[in-house]
Every structure is written in structure tokens, then in C-alpha cells.
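#structure-requests
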Amino acid sequence: MNENWVCAVSVATVWTDPDAPRLVDLPALQQPVQLEKWFGQLMFEERLALSEENRIQTQILYGEPVIVEEIVEDWAKVIVSGQPSSKDSRGYPGWVPLVQLSQRTASLTRVHVRVTAPKTWLNNETGERFLPVSFNTVFPCSRCHGDQFRVWTPHGWKLVRSRDVKQVEEFESGRPLAKGKKFLGLPYVWGGMSGWGFDCSGFVHQLWKSCGVLLPRDAADQAEVGLPVSCNQATWQKGDLLFFKDRQDGPVTHVAMYAGGGQMLHAPSTGKAVEQIKIAGSAYNPKLSGVRRVSDLIYEMKSSVAET
């Protein structure tokens, strides 16, 4: 079909196939989605099964575009074009409940704002709360309305508090570490891409995306971008990506960001939360397999724009 659609819920989960969700996952399939209820009722073993049984691929934020390749009953086979992946040259593939997508026409406004708070609310123009949205959700914006911005959404014009958003520039000056520390203590969620929970590579992807740099979605793909850096910690800079393998001859299984002072910031694993820890003496130290510098991509992109 290759039609352009957008996510029409706060956060939609992209499943491996329509048979992947279990009965306990029903709140994640609804419109509106019930994220707190879903996460609140998942036991540790059920959370772990999201990865161990390959049930979830990724997530998409409200208004994020997807390509719909096929519709099978109540499900849409999609490509998430804003999440680069080696699985498909067009973006990240998977399945989303059709009820969580919309074909709402895009606004013509060229100004956009990005949610900078971990989570915030969209309000109706009459003042009532309408929908909670996540960090890094982007909206076309028309004008400031008191202490709120008027933004275009899959459900028409809404309002968002101006203190919770920032106008999107071609290149953001903010750094991912400062933004990442807002999420210390946030529970890990396999496939997570939002202020309700991240996995390791989703955390890195969203933090750098919020700074104007689009990285691949998965850790193994992220390990191929940027510039290689020595594994000697003395050469590292804040924001460098640290990659880990369970076996040195195996695939990359984890990614973190260097926070300086011998520490790293990361979303660790199921049952744990976003944390900043000392690398030396940790279980991750012997598993370090590579370091990449993404910050140089910003300077390369800026130079490219300046030359055109």
C-alpha cells in the first residue's frame, strides 16, 4: 500500500507480528492506549518475555509517521521511516494495531516544537486535558496562546504548555547527557522509546534525536556510525557511545553513553531503571567492545549546510 499514516495514540508499540501480544498486553493495543495500566500489571517474567520471546520491535510517538505496507484485519504492517534500521532500508519494520494509526492531513505550518519534558499533557482549546505525550514528540505549531503553544496533532489543533516544549531548530545546541539525566530512575522497557520507559538503544536514539542527530534504532547498527575511538578511557569524551558484547566474538548487546569521570549513563535491563554508574568494577567493564564518537556528526552536518 505504501500510504503515509501517523501514530494516533500517546505511544504505539510496534509488535513483531499480530500474534505477539498476550492477554496481559491488551491495554497496549487500545485507543486510547493505557500505558500505566499495561506497565503496572506486567510481572517481571512478563516484561522479560517481551524481549526473550521477541514480541516487541520498537515504539512510535504520537504523530510520528509510518508507511503502511499492508492491512490484515485489525493490524497494519508498517515501516517506521524515522527509525533507521539494517532490517529495512526504509526504516524499522513491524506491526501496529490499526486503531492506533490515523491518516490525518498534515498542517501547512513550517514551525515545529519538540516536547522537552519527560511527559506532558495536550489540552483541548477549551482547557480540558486531552492526551499525555512523551519527551521528543514533535508538533507543527501555529502560535503562542498565552502560556501555551497551539499545535497540530492527529486529532486537530490542541494546546501544550510552553515550558514543556522548545522550538525545533535545524541543529539543537543541547547535549544528550543533560537531557538523559531527566530520566534517572525511569524503569527499563524492552522496545521502549518514550517517557514511560526506554530500552538501551531507544534511550540513546531519542536523546541524540532530540539534539538534531538521527541515529539508527538498534545498538548493533549504532555501533557502525560516528567515528571509532580507542577503548582507552583517557581518550573518551562526554557523550561518546560505549558498546558491549556478552561474548567478544558475538553481537553488540548493549549501548551506553559516557558521562565523564569514569561513569556511564544507560538504560540497563528488564527489572532495572535508567542509571548513571561507575564503569570500573561493574559487570559491564569486561564486556566493553567498542567506542564511537557521535558528536562529530553534528560538526560534519553543520559544515555541510554552511557550504551549500
